[in-house]
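Researcher: Quick test of sequence recovery. Tokens follow.
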């Protein structure tokens, strides 16, 4: 079964004392089964956002230790900061990362809340998806009045905590434990020091909006509904919470936003909308700041969005997309934006593993030439296919901004995106092919003493052999798919690059035929002869298509040389 991973993002009410922050995060770093991804202290907010990830039970254990240390070191009766808060550990949400459902994550959140209440005597409210009652789903409702109102609220029967004591603890306050989708904490910088103007812009965009008033929108009488509640004028962005504040540390006002569903309102949409609303109020956006981490796709989508606005091809590398996103939104205005620290997939990547694709070209050649049997022909076939697809992508990108072809940028961008998807997959298969070989070797190394051990060993060998057949077959399929892009670029692409398309066709055909050799050699050792015969037949058909396409493409190329 695939490993389940959850993220935990506790917010501690201390952003200035580095010693206290370190003692809390040390509890996490010294915990088994979790990785501390990010520690983001804010001096003006007097708050530190910590991000850790790991298996569910390990994350819960680490969270309990960190919350215990925070309760020991932080005195809420002396706390002041720009951010709403009501506890030493103010909030502690869990987020599903991989191979785990929201429903399962909710159960872990409630288990954590129960442990904090029973083991540590912390007053705990459950919010978002972990809420036990509908009225407690909204964190703003749970935390209304903040720490200063907590004592009086706990005296009310309707605000009995979900776990832990109902008595007010002046030192540690209360903690909100939740389960939520991936939330992006995102601040947008303004060229003003006015908190009032920043708040006005925040109210323009946040989903809740602002209170409706009679006459003057600032000083007019509040309009109320039939139940006596203020009538709200909704803002322009869904799934966005926001306030304005002044950050003395940087000398600017910010719009501080929580994007609670980035599939509804992505980061780049929020940025552009704030730019528009700020402009309407005579204020300019100067940059932005990511608090914590963000999923890779959110950054890539932003890069594509800004390239599209420039009528530029989207089929560029992830590195280039990230660079465009960072520069377009000014994510590096206040301090350097480090993808390896701020993008969650990069932060949790196994940095101890030596991947073939991370080697330099000369190192890859030397590794191939070494005495080790891997990487072998399968990985080289995948590499050849990746190079062929990359050449097709290059021609598409060059064509997208050829002088006089400006109106065709979208056409060539679409081809470039298709080529990029293929060469990225083939790059991944370079290491997968070697991994499959290593799986076979590991299976042969299993014990074979008893009959049960022999049977388990043989089953493992057969499973690994199938994987060693399926991977080169995927190389064949992807390389064949790349030839559609290659042929299109030979036909309609920049004529100055037609020879590059020809080389791409040769690489793709080589990849197909080379990978098929691996399919055939590994099929000979497979006990499931019917399965082997089927994939060999399909492989032969793919090879025949590739050879035919190669001839057609080279004929087109030769005709233009």
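Model:
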């Amino acid at each position: 079964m695939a490993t389940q991973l959850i993220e935990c993002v506790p917010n501690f009410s201390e952003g200035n004392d580095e010693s206290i922050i370190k003692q809390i995060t040390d509890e996490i770093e010294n915990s088994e089964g979790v990785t501390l991804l990010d520690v983001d202290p804010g001096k003006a907010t007097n708050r530190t956002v910590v991000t850790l990830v790991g298996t569910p039970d390990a994350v819960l254990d680490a969270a309990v230790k960190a919350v215990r240390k925070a309760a020991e070191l932080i005195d809420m009766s002396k706390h002041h900061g720009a951010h709403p808060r009501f506890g030493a550990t103010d909030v502690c949400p869990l987020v599903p990362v991989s191979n785990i459902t929201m429903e399962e994550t909710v159960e872990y959140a409630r288990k954590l809340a129960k442990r904090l209440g029973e083991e540590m005597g912390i007053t705990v409210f459950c919010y978002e998806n972990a809420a036990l009652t509908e009225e407690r789903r909204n964190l703003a409702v749970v935390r209304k009045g903040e720490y200063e109102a907590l004592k009086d609220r706990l005296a009310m029967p309707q605000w009995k905590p979900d776990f832990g004591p109902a008595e007010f603890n002046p030192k540690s306050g209360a903690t909100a434990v939740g389960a939520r989708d991936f939330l992006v904490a995102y601040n947008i910088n303004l060229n003003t020091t006015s908190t009032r103007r920043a708040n006005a812009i925040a109210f323009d965009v946040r989903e809740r909006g602002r209170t409706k008033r009679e006459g003057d929108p600032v000083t007019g009488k509040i309009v109320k509904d039939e139940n006596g509640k203020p009538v709200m004028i909704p803002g322009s962005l869904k799934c966005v919470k926001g306030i304005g504040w002044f950050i003395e540390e940087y000398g600017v006002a910010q719009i501080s936003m929580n994007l609670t569903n980035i599939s509804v309102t992505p980061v780049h949409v929020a940025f552009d909308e704030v730019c528009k609303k700020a402009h309407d109020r005579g204020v300019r956006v100067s940059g932005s700041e990511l608090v914590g981490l963000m999923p890779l796709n959110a950054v890539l989508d932003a890069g594509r969005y800004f390239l599209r606005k420039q009528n530029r091809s989207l089929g560029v590398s992830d590195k280039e997309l990230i660079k465009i996103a960072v520069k377009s939104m000014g994510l590096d205005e206040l301090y350097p934006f480090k993808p390896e620290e701020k993008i969650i997939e990069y932060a949790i990547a196994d940095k101890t593993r030596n991947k073939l694709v991370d080697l330099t070209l000369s190192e890859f050649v030397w590794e191939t030439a070494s005495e080790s049997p891997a990487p072998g022909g399968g990985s080289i076939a995948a590499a050849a296919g990746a190079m062929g697809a990359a050449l097709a992508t290059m021609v598409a990108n060059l064509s997208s901004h050829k002088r006089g072809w400006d109106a065709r940028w979208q056409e060539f961008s679409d081809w470039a995106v298709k080529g990029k998807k293929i060469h990225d997959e083939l790059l991944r298969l370079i290491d997968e092919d070697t991994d499959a070989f290593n799986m076979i070797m590991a299976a042969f190394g299993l014990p074979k003493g008893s009959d049960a051990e022999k049977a388990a060993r043989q089953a493992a060998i057969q499973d690994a052999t199938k994987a060693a057949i399926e991977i080169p077959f995927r190389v064949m399929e992807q390389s064949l798919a790349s030839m559609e892009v290659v042929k299109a670029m030979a036909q309609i692409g920049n004529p100055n690059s037609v020879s590059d398309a020809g080389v791409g066709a040769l690489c793709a055909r080589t990849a197909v035929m080379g990978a098929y050799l691996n399919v055939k050699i590994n099929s000979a050792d497979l006990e499931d002869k019917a399965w082997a015969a089927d994939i060999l037949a399909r492989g032969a058909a793919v090879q025949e298509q590739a050879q035919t396409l190669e001839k057609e493409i080279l004929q087109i190329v030769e005709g233009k040389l």
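The chain has 17 helices and 13 strands.
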